[in-house]
Specification:
Largest sheet: 11 strands, mixed
Helix content: 25-40%
Shape: globular
Strand order of the largest sheet: 1-32-2-3-6-7-8-9-18-19-21
Mean pLDDT: 93
Strand content: 15-25%
Number of strands: 32
Low-confidence stretches: 1-40
């Protein structure tokens, strides 16, 4: 178990504690992050002043144990709720509102499959999963009062729970979430994330750089990011992951670095079934459903528990569900026979060079996500990764729609191999990027062409303004310093404003309406950025929403449509300048109604507000071409706060010594009373990044407390 030392009492004045004769052997060691603990200790966690755990363990399993302990400490309530949900027992723990979740997971056999997947892991990796779970249990046993009473019944957890949560998150949240699969058509929006890999040929010091920058909702439990460093014999891995996962999904070591962005890999297919009596038709013959009676428990308001049962049908493609009009369809989820997703992430982080990393990628165990990579040797890579069913024909939209379920020829028998997935390795342009756009402009000038791939791989476009801004900032031949790359990452300018505002102002210049004249004056003085002191950003954002629709996604009002032949300069122009100016007049009225004035400072209403910390905000909607993405929620009590956007950021250079900067916007702990839920908002507000402390010597200078592993 772990023992919290007296260092927590002395806080940052731990050197004073040493002067008082209190000895912390681990701090006397110095050395690199992979150094082992001394004496009888089997390892330890050094907690830095941002609540980041630096786990040092004697064994691999010990590292997983420490990581489990750390997650329970920082996010125990979220963690246990996620694991209870993945069991398909959320209604038993938390009541009727969770019944839909339980039914979905039970119908898809998630926990039973997790048991199978757990058994299929190697003995050593099963030991790692068990150790991670044991770390959670031991923390809970030592600190029961730090956990909410309603999540304690989930304890104890085990290695199967770890696998079940990962399976649910990857295959039944990202790939086949209930709300997506029951929609018509299913939502395939790729979400928001940025990634860059920059080759040595494009940096002033001749070292590769990687940007990891996922964007996900701030308040959704299964998307919550966690920052950590995990070290053991032969490895030291820094990065972030989602709470509950025992591996780091956005990771770097002294040798390699990689990140993920959400892509639109079609890993789930819905097959419309043709009824035939009490069965369905397949290849001209009647087939009987396989039927299971499934049951779950529900905790009622009075505290009693009742059991509910339902009959679940299965076709050859998968479990059967009903569309809104009552039509039956079967759900096929790819990759359910590929149980080593967590192991692949772990092996990716253990790679020492590109050959080892690529050999791991070829296993295709991770069901989706673009993977962007850089390494110490100067290699960079983009991969449109995923477990994608292989089809004989059809395009993306065909397979995204309901597919005829009466022909076995429509049921995939294999997946697209690694060799046939779009990828770019060491391009002459010196960079790869992805901002959730299709793979075709992963570098520029382009190196990938849709014609070379099956039409169901991805749509041709369009490319979002955020992705265009990403590419525009990297394209060319100029060499960039690390500081310049950091500055580009923090850029808050809206590409849409650069593209369209000059023409809009020209069209409005002769308009005699007072509202339009006032708008022109404000927008001419605006620099096009969504910064806290920007006056005009709110007005332009309001106009852009009228011009492009609520999510800034409709390009019908542009004179020139987006084209893959000119992907970073289109769409452009005003199709109807008079209408655009009329919308500007309308935007004035709407901006005054929402924000009080058309020149209100952006940060006066856009706030980074968590708990008692309330700071001016910056960054804007990605679909307006702001790379520093913040999706602002609706106005409430005179302000709006982030719904989605900047979460984890890391920028690393493989220089000597390694340069690493980062930020976790909403802090590294969600537990009540933790100071580490709001302590990074000031960096977000000031558009700065933290130095990440990689070596043990650096960590020891910023220690808040230590947990000893016994």
């Amino acid at each position: 178990m772990f023992r919290r030392t007296l260092l927590s009492f002395f806080g940052q004045n731990w050197k004073s504690a040493l002067c008082l004769g209190i000895v912390f052997p681990s701090l006397a060691m110095g050395g690199q992050a992979s150094a082992a603990a001394t004496g009888a200790s089997q390892g330890e966690i050094l907690w830095d002043t941002f609540g980041v755990p630096h786990v040092y363990a004697r064994t691999e399993a010990g590292a997983f144990y420490g990581f489990g302990w750390a997650q329970a400490h920082s996010h125990g309530n979220i963690l246990l709720r996620l694991y209870g949900t993945a069991r398909g027992r959320a209604a038993e723990y938390w009541g009727p509102k969770e019944e839909d979740s339980d039914r979905w997971l039970l119908a898809n056999g998630v926990y039973d499959r997790a048991k199978t997947w757990y058994a299929q892991q190697s003995p050593d990796f099963r030991k790692d999963m068990d150790a991670f779970a044991r770390g959670i249990n031991d923390y809970a046993a030592r600190h029961p009062n730090e956990l909410a009473s309603d999540v304690r019944p989930v304890l104890p957890v085990n290695g199967v729970d770890v696998i079940a949560h990962a399976l649910r998150l990857m295959n039944y949240v990202y790939i086949a979430a209930e709300e997506k699969m029951l929609a018509d058509p299913p939502s395939r929006a790729a979400g928001g994330s940025n990634a860059w890999a920059i080759a040595p040929s494009r940096t002033t010091d001749g070292h590769a750089v990687l940007l990891a920058n996922p964007h996900l909702p701030w308040a959704t439990a299964f998307y919550t990011y966690y920052e950590a460093q995990v070290s053991g014999p032969g490895f030291s891995i820094y990065g972030a992951t989602q709470v509950g996962l025992p591996i780091l999904r956005f990771a770097f070591t002294k040798d390699v670095a990689f990140t993920n962005t959400v892509n639109t890999i079609l890993g789930a297919t819905r097959y419309t079934l043709t009824p035939n009596g009490d069965g369905y038709r397949l290849d001209g013959k009647k087939r009987a459903f396989t039927t299971k009676t499934l049951s779950y428990k529900v905790k009622l308001p009075d505290g009693t528990v009742t059991t509910k049962s339902f009959a679940q049908n299965y076709a050859v493609q998968g479990p059967v569900f009903r569309r809104a009009d009552g039509t039956a369809f079967a759900l096929h989820v790819a990759g359910l026979d590929r149980p080593f997703m967590l192991r692949q992430y772990w092996d990716m982080a253990l790679a020492h060079n590109f050959d080892q990393f690529q050999a791991t990628l070829k296993k295709l165990q991770i069901p989706m996500f673009n993977i962007v990579y850089a390494d110490h040797d100067g290699h960079i890579m983009y991969l449109n990764n995923g477990i994608l069913p292989k089809h004989a024909d059809g395009d993306f939209n065909d397979w995204n729609s309901y597919v005829a379920g009466d022909r076995s020829g429509n049921i995939p028998k294999s997946i697209v191999p690694y060799e046939d997935l779009p990828k770019i390795i060491d391009p002459s342009t010196g960079f790869v990027q992805n901002a959730n756009d299709p793979p075709w402009v992963a570098t520029y000038p382009r190196a990938l062409y849709p014609e070379a791939y099956p039409a169901y791989i991805a749509v041709k476009g369009p490319m979002t303004f955020r992705a265009q801004m990403s590419t525009t900032m990297l394209a060319g031949n100029d060499k960039m310093s690390f500081d310049e790359i950091v500055s580009k990452k923090l850029n808050t300018h809206a590409l849409l404003a650069q593209r369209i505002l000059p023409e809009l102002l020209a069209a409005a210049a002769t308009d005699r309406r007072r509202d339009v004249r006032d708008a022109v004056r404000v927008l001419r003085n605006w620099d096009g950025a969504d910064d806290a002191d920007s006056r005009g950003a709110l007005l332009f954002e309001t106009w852009a929403r009228l011009f492009m629709g609520p999510k800034f996604g409709d390009s019908g009002n542009f004179a020139i449509s987006w084209s893959l032949d000119d992907p970073i300069h289109t769409p452009s122009g005003l199709k109807n300048p008079t209408q655009a100016v009329d919308l500007l007049a309308q935007a004035v009225t709407e901006t005054k109604r929402l924000y009080g004035a058309i020149d209100r400072p952006f940060g006066a209403v856009s706030r980074f507000h968590l708990g008692n910390v309330n700071l001016p905000g910056n960054g804007g909607f990605g679909n307006t071409g702001v790379f520093r993405t913040i999706t602002w929620g609706p106005m409430k009590d005179g302000e709006r706060t982030p719904f989605h956007g900047e979460t984890w950021v890391s920028l690393v250079s493989f220089s000597t010594p390694m340069k690493a900067k980062g930020l976790l916007s909403y802090g590294n702990s969600s537990q009540p009373g933790s100071p580490h839920h709001t302590d990074q908002l000031s960096y977000l507000s000031s558009k700065t990044l933290r130095d990440l402390w990689l070596t043990r010597d650096e960590v020891e200078k910023h220690v808040e407390s230590i947990d000893q592993l016994r």
